[in-house]
Amino acid sequence: MKAALYRRTGPAAEVLSVEDVETPEPGPGQVRVRITGSGVNPTDWKTRAGLTGQDPEGFQIPHQDGVGVVDAVGDGVDTSLSGQRVWLQLAAFGNRYGTAAEYAVVPAERATPLPGDAPDDLGACLGVPAVTAAHCLLVRGHGREALRGATVLVAGGAGAVGHYAIELAKHAGARVVTTVSSEEKGELARAAGADLVVNYREDGAVDRVREFAPHADRIVEVALGANLELDLAVSGAGTVIAVYANEPDDPVIPTRRLMVANTAISYVLLYGVPADELAEATAWTADGAAAGALSPLPVTRYALDDIVAAHEAVENGAVGKVVVVP
């Protein structure tokens, strides 16, 4: 099969290549998926660049997310999965066969059926962003039902995680306010269903958020250090700040102010989420897709041969979703 891969970490142009490798066979508990779209996340380029670990053993086909059709199943896997369209998550986690190839082999639990009327673009956009958003909304909570009538603040509502945090929160019946940095991004956040969109660079932004949400029940946070003052301004007893991204410098945590407010910070990294909580977030994401509550991000497509350009686009902060098509 044709696959993009790297044998050592480093800059995209220096380490990524497209080669013919042997098509893998699914082992026990695994499925093989013919990939129709491979979603690129920031974690993919950071891993390829060497920011998250060591060089791979042998080779690594990158990308955690994707969409495709199950074409073979291993022992112990329900044969009815064969022929189903699925979306993938964490495909390259502990596995050399990520989705940047014509085929990927993954544990069956990492392949979730995609509703028949959902476009491939949606399947390619789910995975890490949507499941992260779901877990951020659920962590330290009482299930999705508890979000009905709650107030949610989503930082960075035009980003991939922010997009799905808005859509899932609205699907659960919450009120949602989100912050963005431009009018273009504001349009994306409004299209996702946010009740209020605030440009945090404009004067009076904090007051506008507080007027809508004097007390946020949950905050989905992309930049804790940069946004901590706003988060604290709308935090109170029971507020959970779910942080899913890091920053170049660790923020100073104002412990006393958080204690007085009885506010909790919960850090979210999907790779270490307990299996039962990951399954709950995945199931909610699947339910949202089946209900038509989730939409694709704006997609920019690259051919597999253009894998370097695709990685560089994400590394440079591309808005929406970069999808590599084998």
UniProtKB/TrEMBL annotation:
A Pfam family that this protein carries is ADH_N
Identify the keywords attached in UniProt to this record, alphabetized. Answer: NADP
Do the record's keywords include Plastid?
no
Keyword Transit peptide appears in the UniProt entry = no
Report the Gene3D superfamilies cross-referenced here. Answer: Medium-chain alcohol dehydrogenases, catalytic domain (3.90.180.10), NAD(P)-binding Rossmann-like Domain (3.40.50.720)
Query: According to the UniProt entry, where is the signal peptide?
Result: none
Domain Enoyl reductase (ER), chain residue ranges per copy: 12-324
Q: Which domain of life is it from?
A: Bacteria
Question: Under which name does UniProt file this protein?
Answer: NADPH:quinone reductase
What organism does this protein naturally occur in? Actinomycetospora straminea
